[in-house]
Amino acid sequence: MDDRTQAPIPAANPALVRCLDGAVRHDWTREEVGALFDLPFPDLVFHAQRIHRMHFDPREVQISTLLSIKTGGCPEDCGYCPQSAHHHAGVKAEKLMEVATVLGEARAAKAAGASRFCMGAAWRSPKDRDLDQVCAMVEGVSALGLETCATLGMLDRAQAQRLKDAGLDFYNHNLDTSPEFYGEIITTRTYQDRLDTIDHVRAAGIAVCCGGIVGMGETRADRIAMIATLASLPAHPESVPVNLLVKVEGTPLAQKSELAAFDPIEFVRVIAVARIAMPASVVRLSAGREDMSEETQALCFIAGANSIFYGPKLLTTANPERGRDIELLDRLGLVPMR
Ligand code: SF4
Predict the structure, then answer these.
(1) Which segments of the chain have a pLDDT < 50?
(2) Would you name the residues annotated as active-site residues?
(3) Most buried residue, 4, 54, 103, 109, by CB count within 10 Å?
(4) Could you give the angle at the alpha carbon of 287 between the alpha carbons of 118 and 100, nearest 5°?
(5) Helix/strand/coil percent split, the chain, to 5
(6) Which of 71, 74, 286, 317 to mutate to test the pocket of ligand 1 (most atoms within 8 A of CB)?
(7) pLDDT digits over 212-254, tens only?
């Protein structure tokens, strides 16, 4: 009997051999990423899991908690976001939280098992006085022994350096989608603005958390282009969040009736391709889990997802209750990443 357990790379596509060796590379082409998407589903998931095991303990899942430290009233017009002041999703604009309140939330997140605490603010970019307060939060959360992450909008080089000096470990700034589809979703800042912020974060020595959203009406070609762009950055993002669009009433994307429920098999393909193209990055199953079956989530873990947001709220949208997540991880034999 043939041994098919090693590398059943379809003979018809020898170009895939170099894509499936599990090495970290930065010269991914859209054709190569597209060829991964075209693999038969069992082959794709097999290779994603095989490559995942080359870089990670497949039982471990990194657990992050996300807190909105400044909600609503954002001047940007991201078509999916209920916090944009351009939309009418009923999210009230609030002031930046007090440092003590944030630290209380961080303590609770740690007690509930989180290893990373992410702080999100609905800004185009932070003002200097706001940054003073955020730096105090970063210092405080760091002192609790948690990894720190922030998402505050666009940063210039000096702002990134200030956050680094305060002890920030990660900065989240997503590309969202392909360069071609981007203008359909956001008009108030450019794709290049996003790449520039990622550059400044990287230059300051902060680890990068950068991914995107699927299910916004993009084509597979856009999903391919997004992953090829991420995997061709000079350094891969250390964290790659993959979000499934959450349709929030009052946002432009929720009003698009043509946006049917996204195919869960295609979602798992996105996770698997991200795992193969950025083999040493943590791939995070992010927004949209509330609408996902446990079976789909399990397939995502098999396909190489190894991080989740934990806690009942993701900024302003719902996320599975902690008890349900613990039970699911338990049933799958998965444990929090040390
Ligand atoms: S995604 Fe961020 S930048 Fe865009 S509108 Fe929402 S809070 Fe503002």
Answers:
(1) none
(2) 74, 78, 81, 118, 149, 209, 284
(3) 109
(4) 25
(5) 40, 15, 45
(6) 74
(7) 999 999 999 999 999 999 999 999 999 999 999 998 889 998 8
Q: Whose CA is nearest to atom 7 of ligand 1?
A: 122
Give φ, ψ of 195 to 5 degrees. Answer: -60, -35
Share of the chain above pLDDT 90, in %: 75
How far is the centre of ligand 1, averaged over its atoms, from the C-alpha of 6 (Å)?
44
Q: Whole-angstrom Cα distance, residue 122 to residue 154?
A: 11
Angle between helices 264-277 and 30-37 (to 10 degrees): 130
DSSP state of 293: -
Residue 297 · residue 69 · CB < 8 Å: no
Query: Which DSSP string corresponds to 43-81?
Result: HHHHHHHHHHHHHS-TTEEEEEEEEEEE-S-BSS--TT-
Give the number of C-alpha atoms closer than 13 A to the C-alpha of residue 243, restricted to the C-beta side: 21
The token pair at 303 is 């396909």
- Residues contacting ligand 1 via CB (< 6 Å): 74, 76, 78, 81, 83-84, 122, 153
The rounded distance, in Å, linking the Cα atoms of 153 and 126 is: 7
Question: What is the DSSP code (8-state) at residue 20?
Answer: G
Output the CA torsion 165→231→218→13 (10° steps).
-170
The pLDDT of residue 107: 94
Q: Which residue has the tokens 């282009």?
A: 225
Ligand 1, atom 4: nearest CA belongs to which residue? 78
What distance in angstroms lies between residue 179's CA and the mean position of ligand 1's atoms? 18
- Ligand 1 centre to CA of 103 (Å) is 23
| Phi and psi torsions of 96, nearest 5° | -60, 135
User: Model confidence over 71-120: pLDDT tens digits?
Assistant: 999 999 999 999 999 998 888 889 999 999 999 999 998 888 788 899 99
